[in-house]
Each structure stands twice: as C-alpha cells, then as structure tokens.
C-alpha cells in the first residue's frame, strides 16, 4: 500500500511538472517606430542609403508633449501612444537662411510628421496570453518632401520603419 501511495504521488508530481508551461520571453516588437534620416543626394550618387545626421533642438509628440530621444546619430525611437491610433510629432531645429541684406540669420524650423497605425493582439499560447503589435503604419501628413516606409509594422528596435530623405 505504501508503494502504491508513493507511486501515485510520484505520478502526480510528474504530471504537474509536465503540465507547467513556462512562458519564455518573446521578442516583443514594442510600440516604437524607428525613424531614420537619409541624405537624398548622397544616396543617389552612391547607390545605397547614406545616413544624414540631424541636429534637432527638440522632437516631441504633440498631444502628450512626450520628448523623443536619439538612438543613434540619425536614428530615433518614436513612441506611439497606446490610447490612440494616430500621432503627430514636431521636429524643431535651426536653419541658416539669407536675411535679404547680404547676410545670414538663424531661424527656428518646425517640421511635422503625422502617422496612423493599427494594433493587433497576437497569441503566444493559451497559458501565456498575447502580445501587442503595431501594423499598417502610414504617414498621413508631413512637411518633409520625401518619405519612405520600409517596414509597416513594428518588429524590433533595429529595423527602420520610416526613412525621411533630406
């Protein structure tokens, strides 16, 4: 009887260990766009994308006034709001222009970028739940002349979603 009791206890222990599902961390695509600035003329000459370093005084999301940080010399991580399916950003920088009197002056320039996107919940497993992915990223309005969408969904922080050609 003791042997049977130990055998049943061992079987229950094995079943409970086997039934446990360890939710391994997945590569969460996050809620950030990766934005890169490209030198248009240099890219045409070289035949490949040439990064352009920008000196922004400030980058921020209009509604929440969230300031954006630089990831690399020309790459920015742009957080997308969780409570909306669109966002507007302002890129503030100085430019030197002709003042009309033979000299130059510095002016503050405000460029804008408005994006729309959708969210989807993707299952991991019945035990581990879901992760959220941002998809169908579109630029709805901008003051920049040339924009290219490379990847229209968030994948990781090292894949550029939007290229801005200057």
Structure description:
The protein has helices spanning 2-19, 40-46, and strands at residues 32-38, 56-61, 66-67, 75-79, 86-98, 104-125, 129-142, 146-149, 162-165. The chain is α+β, with helices and mostly antiparallel strands. A hairpin with a 5-residue loop joins strand 5 (86-98) and strand 6 (104-125). The chain is elongated.
Tell me the overall shape. Answer: elongated
Portion in beta strands: over 45%
Largest sheet composition: 5 strands, antiparallel
Radius of gyration: 25 Å
Strand adjacency order, main sheet: 3-2-5-6-7
* Overall pLDDT metric: 78
Tally the beta strands. Answer: 9
Structural class, from secondary structure content?
alpha+beta
Reading the helices and strands in chain order gives HEHEEEEEEEE
- So how many helices? 2
Distance between the termini: 82 Å
Helix residue percentage: 10-25%
Poorly predicted parts: 12-20
What topology does this entry show?
Blueprint: H1 2-19, E1 32-38, H2 40-46, E2 56-61, E3 66-67, E4 75-79, E5 86-98, E6 104-125, E7 129-142, E8 146-149, E9 162-165
Parallel strand pairs: 1-9
Antiparallel strand pairs: 1-4, 2-3, 2-5, 5-6, 6-7, 8-9
What's the short story on this structure?
This protein is α+β, with helices and mostly antiparallel strands and 166 residues long.
């Amino acid at each position: 009887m003791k042997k049977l009791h130990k055998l049943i206890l061992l079987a229950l222990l094995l079943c409970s260990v086997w039934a446990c599902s360890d939710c391994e961390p997945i590569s969460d695509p996050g809620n950030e766009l990766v934005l890169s600035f490209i030198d248009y003329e240099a890219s045409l000459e070289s035949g490949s994308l040439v990064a352009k370093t920008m000196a922004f005084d400030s980058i921020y999301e209009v509604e929440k006034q969230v300031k954006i940080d630089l990831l690399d010399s020309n790459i920015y991580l742009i957080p997308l709001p969780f409570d909306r399916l669109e966002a507007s950003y302002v890129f503030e920088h100085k430019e030197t222009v002709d003042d009309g009197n033979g000299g130059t002056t510095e002016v503050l320039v405000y460029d804008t970028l408005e994006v729309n996107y959708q969210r989807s919940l993707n299952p991991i497993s019945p035990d581990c739940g879901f992760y959220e992915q941002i998809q169908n990223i579109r630029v709805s309005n901008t003051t920049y002349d040339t924009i290219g969408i490379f990847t229209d969904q968030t994948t990781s922080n090292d894949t550029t979603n939007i290229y801005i050609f200057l």
